[in-house]
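Researcher: Here's the sequence for the chain we discussed earlier.
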Amino acid sequence: MAKKRILLMYITEISGHHSATLAVESALRKLSPGAEILNINGFNYTNPIAEKIVGRLYLTVIKRTPKVWDYLYDNPSILRRIKRIKGAIHRLNSPKLHSLFKNFKPDIVACSQAYPCGMVADYKKTYRSDIPLVGILTDFVPHSYWIYDTINYYVSPSDEVTRRLIEKGIPQNKIKTFGIPFDPKFNEPVDKKLAAARLNLKSHCGTLLIMGGGHGLGPIEKILKSLDAVHGDFQEIVVTGSNKKLYNSLKKKIKRYKKHILLLGYANNINELMSISDIIITKPGGITTSEALAKEIPMIIVNPLPGQEASNTVYLTERGAAIEVDIPEEINFIVESLLSDPGQLRCLSEAAGRIAKPDASMDIAKFLLDSIPT
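Model: Thanks. This is the structure I predict for it:
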């Protein structure tokens, strides 16, 4: 029997999109060890120079002028204006994709971001290909850049997103509500005492995990300063991701803080850090929040960016799984209230458990394997 060949596509190395394809790849290897899997950055593969420029531009915009991103994100008028440009770019990319498909011969393609999904969707039209194409949404919002009639199936994060995809004209039988994929290791039990000891943390006091996504964005220094005003004994784990400037700045100031802080850069043990934490203060990226939901850890979201982060925040807060704080300097009041009220923490945790989809990666992997034509 021929080996099954799966092509996974994402954009941006340090991103939730990449984490999602890695999670699906991990699940695929567990279910089908003999499968051949190619997991590539679709933007870098077709336009390596443009990928670097756009990546830097995106980070600059969301850091300095987030209102610009808010205007561009899922804006119907913008979508109409760039439709022809997008089509032209996809046609230019089609020969490269044709070479890739000719050499790798994938049985199915799955994309965790709309750009590569759109490229493959248009490629299918240009070359009249019938290769199955699956779009895996990694945020709790189905923006219009995902909509193509040559996408065979959509993987939806939630019933609400499924409903909104149907409203956008996607047939219900083309939507699978499996959730957002994350590494299956987040479902594995962690010995909290051993983990705390290994990290030189106390196992008998409250622990706050503070993160700014893979790029270490957000008002982390303001949050730490505010938390120093909270009464009570607790410790903090701060993960700065790839933000070396933030890491170095905090390292110089860490002794000034009253609370015990474990400072980390880019961490590969987030599953362990979540397991030993009582509260996570984080950016509301789709992957991070799905991991936190699976761990049933209460979330505090500070200053979400416009676009997908704002939509994720609405989804989580409306369902009681997270609290949004608009002013970083006032986060101390929320944390003090939560730490002094186990009942409130329990309500947040139970709400997270109700909407969690811990088996998303395995469900998606199984679906991809089952969808390969025989």
